[in-house]
Amino acid sequence: MIEIDGRRLNARLQAFAAIGGTRKGGVNRQALTEEDRRARRLLAELAWARGFSVFQDPMANLFIRRAGQDETLPPMLIGSHLDSQPAGGRFDGALGTLSAFEVLESLEDAGIETERPVVVVAWTNEEGCRFAPGCMGSMAFAAGEIPAEWQQKLATDGAAFAGELKATIESLPRAQMLPLGFPIHAYLEVHIEQGPSLEAGGISIGVVTGIQGTRWLNVEITGQTAHAGTTGLAYRRDPLRALTTALSGLYEMIMPSDPDARFTIGRISVEPGSVNAIPDKACCTVDIRHPDPARLDELERSIASGITTEAERQRCTVAISRSFDMPPCTFAADLQQVVERAAAERGLESMNMLSGAFHDALFVNRVAPSALIFVPCLDGLSHNEAEHVEPEHIIAGCQVLAQATLLLVSTADS
Ligand SMILES: [Zn+2]
């Protein structure tokens, strides 16, 4: 057993919420801004004060390391992110990062020597709102390289990614530089659920089994524009009729028959867009999500065939292309069991659940067994200044992280 200091953790969360703090009690600490740098500096200073070493890599991922008995063993990695949405909450990301740091301090307070080093990480740009995509830091860490096209990226506020990244790295001159990516034993991340399930179930710990896959499609149906008043049914080649008929069939079929599927049409447009003309083009986007990659393929096929059938019925042609494809991720079963055991040892109830949103753990899971631990947030609200987590749930999440970390660092190397 290891005891964490709940009061210290809550005070830390308050101190970090003040960096980029908004008048409504939220946080605006977008990636690679001066606020982001201030939060990183504060964490590094706290680390140096405790005698831990501080590293960063070329993506400005920030690492804090507590030595192990055997420094040749790959470290246990724990953490999350410090960046926020423009009108974000104080717990999204900060909770996981500061809980991880609390675990490191608690190990130090108790004088517990671990076989492996334990490393806390704050990943760069999880949110992806100032520079897209999200999870840049963990994605590059897992890939072992920074995609060349990122260097040209411009922020929503006009700032250049390359310059902001350089300034962020240079804002911590005392931190040693590490190459991108290094072997790790396992990764654990605490995060707020950003959904209502735990709160509704009165359960304080969610053991995330996986993150559903996401696929985006662009659909374009082409017919023939013609006069609305003079063109009889037999002469019409109406792409909007084809699209709406197909979509209504898909709405009836996909989600009602599969509770794990998500099917969303978020954007629809017609050309030329005239009140008294049959359109010659009808376009829409499709967002499909599912935890099973095979089902995602099936869904894509049934969407394509449903739309093609209706397009042919209207004597229209159809083009469908993918614009985004994020495969689902399944977290390591043995690591999920470690988290369940850690919760049970702390007398906390846990439940298995799927995450609807991406997290850094999804990318880290590509290179090392990873687990994601959810805690409830009030009304499931997140990406909102009113985001709130009850102190008892903050403490519960950190205790489970501490216990699971201890179980994993004492495990003999395999
Ligand atoms: Zn987050």
TrEMBL record:
**Which taxonomic lineage is given here?**
Bacteria, Pseudomonadati, Pseudomonadota, Alphaproteobacteria, Hyphomicrobiales
The protein depicted here goes by the name Zn-dependent hydrolase
Q: Which InterPro entries does its entry note?
A: Amidase_Cbmase, Bact_exopeptidase_dim_dom, Peptidase_M20, Peptidase_M20_dimer
Enumerate the UniProt keywords alphabetically. Answer: Hydrolase, Plasmid
User: Superkingdom of this entry's organism?
Assistant: Bacteria
One MF term in GO for this entry?
A: hydrolase activity
- Species this chain originates from: Neorhizobium petrolearium
Domain called Peptidase M20 dimerisation: residue spans: 210-312
Query: CDD domains this protein is in?
Result: M20_bAS
**Classification via Gene3D superfamilies:** 3.30.70.360, Zn peptidases
Q: Which Pfam families match?
A: M20_dimer, Peptidase_M20
Recorded family membership: Belongs to the peptidase M20 family.
